[in-house]
Amino acid sequence: MSADDPSTILAASPAAASGLPHVVTPTAYDGILLAGFGGPEGQDEVIPFLRNVTRGRGIPDERLEEVAHHYRHFGGISPINSHNRSLKAAIEAELAARGIPLPVYWGNRNWAPFLDEAVQDAATAGDTTLLAIATSAYSSYSSCRQYREDLARVLEATGLIGTVTIDKVRQFFDHPGFVHAFSEGVTAAVKELVGDGVAADRIRVLFSTHSIPTADAQRSGPRDRDFGPGGAYAAQHEAVAGFVMAEVAEAVPAAAETGWELVYQSRSGPPTQPWLEPDVCDVIGELPSRGVDAVVIVPLGFVSDHMEVLWDLDTEAMEAAERAGIRAVRTPTPGVDPAFVSGLVDLVEERRNGTPAADRPHLTDLGPWFDVCRPACCENVRAGFTPAISGVAP
């Protein structure tokens, strides 16, 4: 199978089976599948959850406890399931308001409710043509391809290949609905700081996202395009951050003097493995020597207040700012912002209506991203390629 001669895409609807980058044939879906990461909801669930997250890597429980204390600090409860329940309800309400009679099924990669259950529930209800929305906006192995592999694994494990088809909406990093909350949040933060007398050129905006192995980053996105050393993953974040800062400067003219950069957080690999840098806390520690009095921390890589936001940003990054003696403001994630929810349903309508690529909203030159991922997109260097839905095989 190749991009020039794409054959049937695994478990795809007839419209998506051609393998073309953008599907422009309308598709009558039976249901929406909201695919989440999952998280523990009690102290007894923390280590089993982390075992699921790190399955196949042979990491002993003693090392998992080093991460577990982040969850234990909050009673062993990750906010992610609660956020996804709210997001599911908000999507259902938006679908109903538009007169779109589609049920929403929700399943997670790493903890209950699992994707297996969600897909089986859909099939039992007779909803066998599904459109997936993953709660991750950018392109990389962990944020896109792994979800696609999980869904292929679920179909195989449940024996539903040939009965259930699953397509996936495009990565929505530069969709206006996703970007809206970040633009509003940074604008409000800069306006507040300038209003309090902080000089705009002494404010630094740090756009933070989850670090990933450098080798995975370099392989993110299709291979036929050079996105730079950080691959499509870094390029997408940089492009969105640049758009946000241009919007902020329009709303707060003084912000044209405000500097910004992309930073990373939540590294979990061994010290010998290169991961994307710089780390958000390291950068905050350097800001006073760079003439910065205040920092705006933007969780650009996250759709809601995950544990990584609560711990790495609201706890560790804020402590770093306190040690550095500078003021810090953390801006909101999209969560269930009406613009974000509306944008997700817009993505559903794109696929239901077969909207041409030229008519799809996007805020950077990188979009609109693909409906069907390209060959060899977002390879996992450690594990290689395994079957995945919604993409042309490598």
Structural overview:
With 394 residues, this protein is α/β, with parallel strands linked by helices. It has two domains: 31-172 and 337-359, Rossmann fold; 176-330, 3-Layer(aba) Sandwich (Rossmann fold). Helices cover 39% and strands 11% of the residues. The protein contains eleven helices and eight strands. The strands form two sheets. It has a four-stranded parallel beta sheet with strand order 2-1-3-4, sandwiched between helices. Helix 10 (307-324) links the parallel strand 7 (294-298) and strand 8 (327-330). Helix 4 crosses helix 5 (141-158) and helix 6 (176-195) packs antiparallel against helix 11 (338-353). The longest helix is centred in the middle third of the chain and has 21 residues, at 231-251. The model is unreliable at 1-6 (pLDDT under 50).
